[in-house]
Design brief:
Elements: H1 3-12, E1 16-21, H2 29-39, E2 43-48, H3 58-65, H4 76-79, H5 83-90, E3 93-99, H6 101-109, H7 115-122, E4 127-131, H8 135-139, H9 141-152, E5 156-157, E6 161-164, E7 170-174, H10 178-189, E8 198-203, E9 208-209, E10 215-216, H11 223-234, E11 238-243, E12 255-258, H12 262-273, E13 278-281, E14 288-290, E15 309-311, H13 315-320, E16 327-334, H14 338-349, E17 353-358, E18 369-376, E19 379-387, H15 388-412
Parallel strand pairs: 1-2, 1-3, 3-4, 4-5, 8-11, 8-13, 11-12, 13-16, 16-17
Antiparallel strand pairs: 6-7, 9-10, 14-15, 17-18, 18-19
Helix pairs in contact: 1-10, 2-3, 2-10, 5-7, 6-9, 11-15
Length: about 425
């Protein structure tokens, strides 16, 4: 018995898994996935889209799952008793593998024009998707936006993997191997590393007004912070999200506090810090603000305009100076000498962990991908360039381990 199957017995035994299959060459892997799920103790029912049926046959999956395969909303025999609603209620886990770019787009739109998309809307079960598509389709801004939206709604995104593709391209977009998908379900259903903890996350930019029309700001999109909030929720935490001015949907399950300026963000964070176990400062907080704000729009005079700037409060440093404070995680966005400046910030502010990222060259601000250098007292790790949601999950896992180690050390002391 494989390690995956052995571990699964404890978590997937008698779990009802609805496997949705969409069109794509990766559909052939779904046969092995059904077998792995059943080896893990799950009961599996399969729903195929019309496109999936052009790559594999329903008969194969009926034999492997031991249950009839559904593919149409217009199955008169099954729908005589509202079979799609019964199937939606039956599921304890909904897994779509492979999940094509088209299906991901339709899920993001909330479509319900075939059996699979209708089941997703009609089911209260957790939803996981395993993307599979050409690398350029995966990299397209529309797909990235759809994936971000699904993650914000609490959908688990398993993969994709990187490698050679059936079309001859090489890159991200391969469906994860069946064992890895089963492992993803295991991790989601098993003990979660942040269960019972309160996590405070700041995200996005801050804006400092010059007059009623103009402001000083930065290019932060808030995507990384929102992805971290979503990952912390999936890890079991109660999450409060202090968000600067961004146009992003609130992650499912998060309590959101909207702010505009650095001082507003400071007040919101300090108010929440006392009953937070972990604070992750992913926001790009402005260092300076205008000393005075004009009550009326400033007019051009033909001369240079001089603004006197004063320093904003240092939120992380203020929290670190408190006698009792949360586990502190900071971010450092740098254009050069990344590790030098990040380590100096880690030590100067007394942080427990810092996540440093190089900005520019299609990394950091206004990008769907990032790369992180993690530094903590006595340790170092690198998370290579990847989707921000993938990085957020890896970062939260590291935070959970370091927080647990710090808590255990305090208990022994």
């Amino acid at each position: 018995m494989s390690e995956i199957s052995y571990m699964s017995k404890a978590s997937l035994q008698r779990v009802r898994v609805l496997l949705g299959m969409t069109g794509g060459i990766a559909a052939y892997k779904a046969a092995e996935l059904v077998r792995r799920l059943r080896d893990a103790g799950a009961e599996v029912r399969v729903v195929m889209t019309e496109s999936a049926g052009r790559f594999v046959t329903a008969l194969t999956f009926q034999a492997l799952s031991g249950n009839p395969v559904r593919s149409s909303l217009w199955d008169e025999g099954a729908e005589a008793a509202m079979g799609h609603i019964e199937l939606a209620r039956w599921a304890e886990e909904v897994l779509i593998a492979p999940a094509s770019a088209d299906t991901i787009a339709r899920l993001a739109q909330g479509r319900a024009d075939d059996l699979l998309s209708t089941l997703v809307l009609a089911s209260s079960a957790p939803l996981s998707v395993a993307p599979a598509m050409n690398q350029q389709m995966w990299a397209h801004p529309a797909t990235r936006a759809n994936i971000d939206l699904l993650r914000q709604r609490g959908v688990r995104v398993l993969g994709p993997a990187s490698g050679s593709q059936a079309c001859g391209d090489v890159g991200d977009g391969r469906m994860l191997e069946p064992d890895d998908i089963v492992q993803g379900l295991l991790q989601a259903r098993g003990p979660r590393p942040l269960d019972g903890l309160s996590v405070l996350v700041s995200a996005g930019p801050t804006y400092e007004d010059i007059d009623p029309v103009r402001f000083i700001g930065n290019r932060s999109s808030g995507r990384m912070g929102f992805a971290i909030a979503a990952a912390a929720i999936q890890a079991g935490a109660r999450v409060r999200l202090v968000a600067g001015p961004v146009s992003l949907p609130t992650p499912a399950g998060a309590e959101r506090i909207d702010v505009r300026s650095a001082r507003q963000m400071r007040d919101a964070v300090v108010a929440c810090a006392a009953d937070s176990d972990i604070f992750i400062s992913a926001a790009a907080v402005g260092d300076y603000r205008p000393q005075t704000v004009s009550p009326a729009k400033l007019k051009k005079s033909g001369n240079a305009l001089a603004l006197e700037l004063v320093q904003n409060p240092d939120i992380l440093a203020e929290l670190a100076a408190m006698p009792a404070h949360p586990f502190l995680v900071g971010f450092a966005a740098e254009t050069n000498d990344l590790e030098h400046y990040a380590r100096e910030k880690l030590e100067r502010k007394g942080l427990d962990l810092i996540a440093a990222n190089q900005v520019g060259e299609e990394l950091g601000f206004e990008c769907s991908e990032n790369a992180l250098l993690l530094l903590w007292p006595g340790g170092r790790d690198e998370l290579g360039k990847a989707d921000k949601g993938v990085l957020a999950t890896a970062l939260v896992e590291r935070i959970a381990r370091l927080h647990a180690a710090a808590r255990d050390g305090q208990a022994r002391a």
